[in-house]
Amino acid sequence: MAVQRRKRGALAVVAALIAGGTGVASASPATDEPLPRGGATVTLITGDRVTVHDGDRPGTITGGPGRERVAFRTVTADGRLSVIPADAERGLAEGRLDPRLFEVTTLLDAGYGDTAELPLILTRADGARPAPSTLDTTAELPAIGSFAATSDKSPTAFRALLDEPGITKVWLDGKREPALDRSTAQIGAPTAWQTGLTGAGVVVAVLDTGVDETHPDLVGKQLAEADFTEDPDNTDLDGHGTHVAATIAGGDPKYRGVAPDARILDGKVCVSGGCAESSILAGMQWAVEQGADVVNLSLGGRDTPEVDPLEEALTTLSERSGTLFVVAAGNDGADRSVGSPGSADAALTVGAVDRDDAVAPFSSRGPRVGDGAVKPDVTAPGVGIVAAHASTSGHPGQDGRLTLSGTSMATPHVAGAAALLKQQHPEWTGQQVKAALTASATPTEGASVFAQGAGRVDLARAIGQTLTTEPSSLPLGLQRWPHDDDVPVARELTYRNAGDRELVLDLSVAGEALPAGLITVSPRRVTVPAGGTATATVTGDTSVDAVDGAHGGLVVARSGDAVALRTPVAIEREVESHEVTLKALDGDGKPTADGLVTLQNVVTGEFQGVFPAEGGTTVRLPAGEYLAIGGFDRPQGGFAYVLRPSLRVAGPVEAVFDASTAKPVEISAPDPDAEELLGQFSVRRTYEGRTVGTGNAYLGGFGGLVSIGHAGPEAPDARVLVASQFQGAAAQDGARTGYRLAWEHEGRAPDGVREAPTTAELATVRTSYGPLADGVTAQRSLQPAGDGQATGWGVYVEAGRSSGAVDHVNDDTDWALGMIGSEPGGAGFELNSAVRRFEAGQGYRHRFAFPVFAPAPSAEGPLLQRSGDVLTARVPLFGDGDGNHGSDWQAEGGTRLFRDGVQVGASEQGGHGRFTVPEGEADYQLVTGARRTTGLTGFTTAVELLWTFRSGHVDGVRELPVTVVGFSPGLDEAGAAAGGSELGVPVVPRRAGGAAVEVTGLVVEVSFDDGGAWAPVPVVDGVARVVNPDVAGFASLRVRGESAGAGFEQTVLRAYRITA
């Protein structure tokens, strides 16, 4: 891997990214949180279109054909936004629809945003075969009684799915992510090689991005290949699969794989955009049919308590074939973050350790979501792993090799180890191999069983291991609160001795801070005859004095002074939870089964929807604060909603939602002929430092069809927004006058709304727009805002010509202004203002899209922050000269992070990246940039940015004091300055939050040949004095300096135009 050691060299990396797209030189494990992004549009399976900002901030909603007045529920939690049409609610509540179908953030992450079709996995009812004609079947998935298909994103196709009795579940065909000189010795492989174990005769399937079988390390290794992706062949365009395959079976003497004589099945299931679940499923089926003994899955995705198709297939195929599936735990690093399908019982799930056997900070931890079981099962080296570099990947490498980190790299070490054991014991099933590897693992002292399972794989012990347990990991389950009357739960643990001599085992339970008596084993000594078994009983007693939550440990078996094996065991004490009875009453105050109650935990963000039965329905919820809404369809048409901002669960409680208490929402604009475009209400709560929210939006406005009311106690931190947006009948300069009206209520929901403001009671905002290329259409929006950011949905309407558009807004809430510029083909950019409040009766002017376009901070958070040992960059690269922050939808670029001169992470997004780094203090360089691929404005064709700073571990979250620079010269309406004259260019250092920035060593340079040559210009009182040549062209600007100990260098190509 190339090492960049000097500032200018690091900046050259960005220039290379801008010139030739993005290349990842080393993989940096990322957290599961979605990265921020610019504006994007998602078409839902229903045909409805949703536009969002930065992945989870509300933008606009447009109904599909014939759905111009559909109602939507919106939910934001953990940085993920869901938009749920009213006609999907019951299918979700009954479990027939996968919630991910409406997770806007998830759809964007998977690349399913503004597409005409959506890939699905559909579960058949018993004996059902036909599929709706609206589906195009792409693969049969017999292992789970399902099939993969694509569906049009349309109201007709969605209704056909709901009405088809032969389909019991509609899943999104989501995307999973692909998650050696010393590392083989670390797991004891040389000891196994010395005994003649090399993997000969064993078949290992690598389901990944493809394998470069022409690499010298892999020549002659491949047995068969198959492509399950949309790519034309098995070429490894990413390099991940080749690296994995070489770690398993590489033949180079120095970089030897763990099982160098194993044969490889190359199943391509991943492309650069991720791994489609249907591709993974088809690849798993194929691998088993091809006779794979071991299947390596260095991939995964978010797990839920529900058994998903990948988990089901892994379990079924393991049972039927005896194949062992070795799966990456994931790179999230948090507790309860082990991904699917590694979450399946039958999977041998692998976490990552470094060269000193310390669990890597990025390695996903357990316990398993839903039942508290131990996952991962084992660990293996996964930090700084050197293996083969695919010649077709386009990523930089040295000597045909690449250094990568992640649980993706740890997993093939274990797959290779499994191949050696399978060679030694060809009669063993996959689960027996798993048991041996788990039983012989060496734990890392001080690490939790939920971080490492049984410990780091130890082949030197495994090949001589004659003692195993069944099961290899022992879950004792979840015990319901309260615990003072809990009955102990016991499970048998069977010791199996495959050796030729009797073993006497002393048994005990070990675990970090494991409460006394919580987990015990009896008897304390067992004798296991040669070739026989013995049984012990492991008991969990959650009535003992212990904190609620998951507890894990190891059942340790010793034979004499030697440790024979360790078996992970876990039990979970349910946190305080209570029965909550939900009742719905219709508009006449009578019980109904047609009311939907949604509940959102204000601390965790988790939400669920319930249709209570007529007599009520009882659900069990953890103690805490909840935000609840009861929603009803009214027989006479329209909707009624009862909001309960505070539902406190501290004991058994009943919550009644009575539609008869809701009162009408009646809002009108000063112009009686104005058209209502959008109505909405939402409630958000900021509780213990976390904000969650939910609400509803109505295309075509409230229209007298919506009623709203309050239930239960008030919540001081609750904010209930009611808003409506209108468009006047008369057009001025190509744009119709807008009326943007919003009211925010503190603590409680209003009992109906009746508002009819006059123009005199509103502020007037006139917005003008800078020069745009021919064919580019501009649209404007205003969104209700609170807490410094947009909190309500907007609607984009015609922006008008450069002279601008007029909007009238009320002063009862804050507002965020926005614009998008787009071409018919879909290329576009967006700009957004800071949040502000307008005073009634006053006039205001706002400008968008005037040069210079340059990085500008947004209100969404720091430009760069450190949370523990995770660095996150969020840099809007294409703001404008007035300080509006923005993004270009088609810009290409990347971000790279260097630590003490060595690259430690890379992202394929210009301006954005999330990187896990070592905790020690070090010097960092972050280089990022992007180039525009379209001429939407004709300005700022490329941006480059370099930060230098020093950072070490922090507790909590800390903003790092990095700086971006804006330029605001006085240009004409075309964004031009006269040639042959001096131009004053104000240099505006900026930081998130609008804090003043003191800069030292400020240097500004100008180029008139697109960055070929640079010349310094004087800076007087913060204004650069640029003398423009008397030749038509463009000026580019470069600035560098230091602030608060952090250096910056920023380059903008084609900042403004020069007229002759």
From TrEMBL:
Top-level taxonomic group: Bacteria
Gene3D superfamilies: Peptidase S8/S53 domain
Keyword Heme: no
One of the record's GO molecular function terms: serine-type endopeptidase activity
Keyword check for Ligase: no
Keywords: Hydrolase, Protease, Serine protease, Signal
SUPFAM superfamilies: Subtilisin-like
Biological process terms in GO annotation: proteolysis
Catalytic residues (positions): D208, H240, S408
Record domain Peptidase S8/S53: where: 199-455
Pfam families recorded: Peptidase_S8
Signal sequence segment: 1-27
Protein family (similarity comment): Belongs to the peptidase S8 family.
PANTHER family: CEREVISIN-RELATED, PEPTIDASE S8
UniProt-recorded name of the protein: Peptidase S8 and S53 subtilisin kexin sedolisin
